[in-house]
Amino acid sequence: MKHGRTRFITLFLAAPLVLYGVFVLYPYVQGVIISFTDWSGYSRDREFIGFANYIELAGDDRFWAALSHNAMFLLVLPPVTLGIALVFAALTSVAGGKGGRVGPIAGSGWYRAIYFFPNILPIVMSLVLWQFVFNPRIGLLNGFLEAVGLGAWAHAWLGDPNTAPWAVLSVLVWGQIGFYYVLFSASIQGIPREYFEAAQLDGVGRFRMFFTITLPMMLQTVQVAWIYIGMFALDMFVTVAILTPDGGPSGSTDVIATYMQRLAFSGGRFGYSATIGVVLTVLTLLFAFITFRVTRRERVEY
Questions:
Q1: How many Å from the N-terminal Cα to the C-terminal Cα in the chain?
Q2: Nearest Cα to 240, choosing from 59, 79, 72, 29?
Q3: For residues 85 and 184, is the Cβ–Cβ distance under 8 A?
Q4: pLDDT surpasses 90 at 119
Q5: Phi and psi dihedrals of 3, rounded to 5?
Q6: Is the pLDDT score of 57 beyond 90?
Q7: Are 63 and 247 in contact (CB under 8 A)?
Q8: Is 152 exposed, middle or buried (0-12, 13-18, 19+ CB in 10 A)?
Q9: What pTM did the predictor assign?
Q10: pLDDT for the residue numbered 65
Q11: Alpha helices, DSSP H only, in the chain?
Q12: 84: burial class by Cβ within 10 Å (0-12, 13-18, 19+)?
């Protein structure tokens, strides 16, 4: 009976494991192999060149510039996005309630629908719309500034190396807040109401409740969210490629993924771009490992 169950479980898991190995793990292995070659991507000829691509990468100024942009987004995007989403989620989930009891504010469901709306739009469509918003001649942003008497602030937001990274960052924050707001709201609603009611009977204010009950009880959700958005900040290919093609003015918004794509499909250097892909994968795994280690906490129980 036991052997039959083991055989059933093995057969049940065999198909997904094979598919995972073929379509997920094998491409990574192929990428590592290609990174040691000079393959152009458009012929079968490729020569094994050892660590030549990795040595060239160490002295590639454009790669380091792209990496610095990823690092800037990684430092700014997660705290800003998750901080705003967390505050909104707490305000709409526990700042209201009838009869003085802790609970969601009126219309909290509508707030979730409104905040989540950007995630429903196809990302390409929303980014094209943002291109029009930042357009220096007919853009909505400059038009608004001129309408309120701040026409002197009108600017070519995506055409200036000083403002292009921050314009891209603002679009990223706008597009990501809704998802994490809904995620945090669901996590807060999973906290038993009795904890809030007991704290309320002890005279604890709602501001203090946030730091002593709400935040500690949802730390694991915040941890997962931080890793997920951090990995997004290390990629950002679609957003940067559409808003600022060719890496923006003077390469000010170029990130590793867009640099890698240009080398492969425009420069015919698949071997070298595979090297960048391997390094990006290692950096992503390293970021996830460090985040898990730094944010690891014992599960909070009351």
A1: 43
A2: 72
A3: yes
A4: no
A5: -65, -35
A6: yes
A7: no
A8: exposed
A9: 0.85
A10: 94
A11: 2-20, 26-34, 52-58, 61-94, 108-120, 123-133, 140-147, 164-189, 193-201, 206-209, 215-217, 219-233, 237-243, 256-265, 270-295
A12: middle
